[in-house]
């Protein structure tokens, strides 16, 4: 089962499915109607998951052959022991014993929840990110220790200065530390500061009852909510809070972000190393395939490699190579032989197709379409702002202008479809083209009410295509490329965040469902509450409800939500609730959300380095073209040919890629010794390496190729056979 990479991947994907199923079942069982395995299908699915996990352990142990102990001492022994522990604790008799000893399904639910952690070992990139986070834990622990020390110093100072005036926030050391942690997250810290600056009687902040201590005690007001000894400390409180906020919120937490960013950068670097190794393996496999292809001699056998490029791509590249060669040599070459073999109407169609391709890919046409996109957006904005009366001159003008824009967008689609030649369906291989086609078709009134607001919004989506303008601004293009480059890492971090949120949501429902039904009554509401906490939006209100109980905080007697009648089972969470919310806040808001900063910054650095290398190549190409007086049109065409030949997007072309591509295009005979030409150019110092060419070296090679075009081009008889064979093969397919 695990003997080949493909089988191993299928096995891991299967186990991953059961891990996700196990996690979903735990979430489902937080709802009362499915709690305690009451549902037959939930009980059956739990049994299926247990069988799958048990088989995983058995297969891995059996896979060690005559040395089964390697399962416990091998390189993955930690994860193997974790998997085994999950299976043991999920056995029915073990679950029953846990249920009998604890008397609650909460322990059982938490044991089942641990099965979701198996997902880390099944997704390598998620494992890499998490291992990178753990790699930074040592530095993070030092910063947390330093923060705790600073909090303790300020907590003692706060008790000395503000304990009698503000017992809720500074009545005890634990409360003072919790208050300072809240202030360090900038969560309503000014309310705490104003209580100290103005006094609890002038600024009760909705917390304190002002009056005599004995009278308030007689009324049953808890001591932490009594403002019996108000005192204002304007100077001391202002200095205290300004220094604390600057030191903790601005400096110490910035150090925290820096450490997490560095750890994330290391994790991303490791991920990219894995990706580069996989890309290198793909390149080597393709190189071996190309090497096998180049061993064929007869042109009939050559057709085995003729499907590397689509017909439209071959025609475009052949045309660009021919036109660039004509520009450099100032000579005219005969048109492609295959056109002479086609029927008259096919020749006409292909000529029209080439004209359409030239128009659709021209810069002036792209600029014209972008202008129309902006006009379409302006039309939608005007129509939804001034609401011109039907039949008025303004309405007629906008309607005609809108019709003109629709016609031009339709022409653009038709041109791009025609530009694909014999394979017009290739137009729909691009998601952007699919989106353009759908919006263009739906924008016509025959597909809906022309006054439909949904149709106007759909038409306005074309404004997204204005992103083409980014190519005119290199700095903006670099930023967008950095974001695109980091999308994969952002996706995995989002997955990890979702996993953490889910785990804490199930735990929160288990712990706080009865005390706080508004925030943790159901799993979906708990996820939303945790996202609110992660963004620091009044997160302490949720924390105080579960630390002090819903009767003492949050569930008011007025009409605001949540109301007091929802609080049926008030209970104090105490230290456990504080640990839950502080731990989640540190993990989600200060670690996981900071990972996005690390991804973007690392991607920006990588994109900047890539842009600098590309700029250096472009400058070298321009300098060489100016020195050799090479037409800009030829250089532009060679760049595009290079991009089309570079199928693996490695930024370089090796000998086999160039030869197989050029033979397939019909511009080079297979018997020609291209390696000798490149070796000669390397010896003369025209290129740095003969086995691998970047864009600059490819341009220099193409200059030499163009000057030797008469020698390199296939003779007419062989070319006729070559093109005729390709034509027959394409007709068959």
Overview of the molecule:
The protein is an all-alpha fold. Helix content is 71%, strand content 1%. The chain contains 34 helices and four strands. The strands form two sheets. Strands 1-2 form a two-stranded parallel ribbon. Helix 12 packs antiparallel against helix 14 (234-293), helix 20 (393-418) runs antiparallel to helix 21 (431-442) and helix 24 packs antiparallel against helix 28. The longest helix is centred in the middle third of the chain and has 60 residues, at 234-293. The radius of gyration is 35 Å and the shape is globular. The model is unreliable at 293-306, 335-342 and 711-731 (pLDDT under 50).
Overall structural class, as computed from helix and strand content, comes to mainly alpha
Please outline the major beta sheet.
Answer: 2 strands, parallel
Low-confidence parts, pLDDT < 50 over ≥5 residues?
A: 293-306, 335-342, 711-731
**What's the overall geometry?**
globular
Determine the N-to-C terminus distance: 37 Å
Number of strands: 4
The quaternary state of the protein chains shown equals single chain
Strand content: under 5%
Helical run tally: 34
How big is the Rg? 35 Å
DSSP helix fraction:
over 70%
- Spatially, the strands of the biggest sheet line up as 1-2
How confident overall, as mean pLDDT? 76
């Amino acid at each position: 089962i695990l003997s080949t990479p493909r089988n191993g991947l299928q096995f891991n994907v299967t186990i991953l499915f059961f891990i996700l199923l196990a996690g979903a079942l735990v979430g489902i069982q937080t709802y009362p109607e499915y709690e305690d395995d009451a549902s037959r299908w939930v009980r059956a699915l739990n049994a299926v998951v247990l069988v799958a996990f048990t088989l995983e352990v058995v297969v891995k142990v059996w896979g060690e052959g005559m040395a089964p102990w390697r399962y416990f001492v091998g390189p993955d022994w930690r994860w193997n022991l974790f998997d085994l522990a999950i299976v043991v604790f999920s056995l029915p008799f073990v679950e029953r014993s846990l249920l009998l000893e604890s008397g609650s399904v909460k322990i059982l639910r938490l044991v089942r929840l641990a099965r979701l952690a198996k997902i880390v070992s099944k997704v390598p990139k998620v494992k890499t990110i998490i291992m990178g986070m753990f790699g930074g834990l040592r530095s993070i622990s030092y910063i947390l220790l330093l923060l705790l020390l600073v909090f303790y110093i300020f907590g003692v100072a706060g008790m000395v200065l503000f304990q009698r005036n503000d017992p809720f926030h500074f009545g005890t050391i634990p409360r003072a530390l919790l208050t300072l942690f809240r202030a360090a997250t900038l969560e309503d810290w000014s309310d705490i500061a104003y209580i100290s600056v103005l006094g609890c009687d002038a600024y009760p902040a909705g917390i304190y009852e002002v009056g005599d201590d004995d009278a308030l005690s007689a009324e049953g007001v808890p001591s932490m909510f009594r403002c019996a000894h108000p005192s204002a400390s304007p100077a001391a409180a202002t200095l205290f809070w300004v220094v604390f906020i600057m030191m903790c919120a601005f400096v110490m937490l910035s150090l925290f972000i820096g450490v997490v960013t560095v750890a994330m950068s290391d994790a991303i670097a490791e991920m990219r190393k894995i990706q580069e190794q996989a890309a290198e393996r793909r390149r080597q496999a393709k190189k071996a395939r190309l090497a096998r292809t180049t061993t064929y001699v007869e042109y009939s056998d050559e057709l085995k490699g003729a499907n590397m490029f689509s017909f439209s791509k071959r025609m475009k590249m052949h045309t660009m190579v021919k036109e660039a060669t004509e520009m450099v040599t100032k000579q005219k070459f005969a048109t492609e032989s295959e056109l002479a073999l086609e029927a008259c109407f096919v020749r006409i169609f292909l000529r029209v197709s080439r004209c359409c391709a030239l128009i659709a890919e021209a810069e002036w046409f792209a600029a014209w379409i972008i202008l129309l996109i902006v006009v379409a957006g302006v039309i939608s904005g005007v129509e939804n702002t001034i609401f011109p009366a039907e039949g008025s001159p303004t309405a007629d003008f906008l309607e005609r202008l809108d019709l003109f824009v629709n016609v031009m967008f339709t022409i653009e689609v038709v041109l791009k479809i025609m530009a694909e030649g014999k394979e017009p369906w290739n137009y729909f291989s691009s998601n952007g083209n699919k989106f353009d086609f759908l919006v263009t078709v739906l924008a016509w009134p025959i597909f809906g009410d022309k006054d439909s607001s949904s149709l106007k919004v759909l038409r306005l989506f074309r404004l997204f295509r204005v992103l083409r303008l980014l190519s005119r601004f290199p700095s903006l293009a670099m930023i967008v490329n950095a974001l695109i480059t980091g999308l994969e890492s952002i996706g995995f971090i989002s997955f990890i965040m979702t996993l953490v949120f889910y785990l804490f949501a199930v735990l929160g429902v288990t712990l706080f469902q009865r005390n706080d039904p508004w925030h943790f009554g159901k799993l979906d509401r708990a996820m939303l509450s945790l996202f609110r906490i992660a963004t620091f939006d009044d997160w302490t209100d949720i924390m105080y409800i579960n630390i002090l109980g819903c009767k003492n905080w949050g569930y008011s007697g007025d009409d605001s939500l949540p109301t007091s009648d929802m609080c049926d089972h008030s209970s104090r969470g105490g230290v456990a609730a504080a640990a839950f919310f502080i731990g989640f806040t540190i993990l989600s808001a200060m670690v996981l959300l900071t990972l996005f900063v690390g991804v973007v910054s690392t991607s920006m650095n990588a994109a900047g380095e890539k842009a600098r290398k590309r700029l250096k190549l472009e400058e070298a190409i321009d300098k060489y073209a100016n020195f050799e007086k090479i037409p800009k049109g030829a250089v532009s065409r060679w760049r595009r040919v290079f991009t089309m030949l570079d199928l693996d997007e490695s930024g370089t072309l090796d000998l086999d890629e160039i030869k197989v591509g050029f033979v397939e295009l019909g511009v080079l005979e297979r018997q020609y010794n291209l390696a000798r030409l490149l070796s000669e150019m390397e010896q003369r110092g025209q290129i740095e390496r003969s086995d691998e060419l970047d864009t600059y070296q490819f341009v220099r090679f193409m200059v030499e190729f163009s000057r030797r075009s008469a020698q390199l081009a296939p003779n007419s008889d062989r070319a006729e056979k070559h093109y005729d064979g390709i034509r027959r093969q394409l007709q068959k397919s």
